[in-house]
Amino acid sequence: xxxxxxxxxxxKEVGGKVCTFRSLLEYRWAVxxxxxxxxxxxxxxxxxxxxxxxELETKxxxxxxxxxxxxxxxxxAGKYELEETKGYFPPKDYTKLYLATQQxxxxxxxxxxxxxxxxxxxxxRAQYARAKKLEPHLKRIIWHAxxxxxxxxxxxxxx
Length: 159
Known about the structure:
Blueprint: E1 2-4, E2 7-14, E3 17-21, H1 24-38, E4 42-47, E5 54-57, E6 64-67, E7 71-75, E8 80-86, H2 91-103, E9 108-112, H3 122-134, E10 140-142, H4 145-148
Parallel strand pairs: 8-9, 9-10
Antiparallel strand pairs: 1-2, 2-3, 4-7, 5-6, 7-8
């Protein structure tokens, strides 16, 4: 594992794919995504697929921003969806996701390990407010993936 900032990068194999994840949240979501594939809920998934690099344009100054979704999903209807995991949700990420929802048709799911609006930390409350503002434009937000999903499948994670 390589460390940068407070986040640990880790390289793991999930479903025969070797990926370098920027966080344990990304790794755990990949395991969950592979499980959905094995159950026939989705057809295929890709992690940070370079072919899915989106070029976004800001409205005011027409600046270009690049956005590489964490996960690209091919659903059983043959349509693509994007899934974005976030441990931290700064304003620049809000902007990229908002622009992606406005400029591309693929539905986006935003995933947090755990995020709520009643934290004593004002920075966490601000992240929650940004996500809540974005919610009408997304397919859905998973606010507590740790509790709602990962606890039930924790036996599948490598230590």
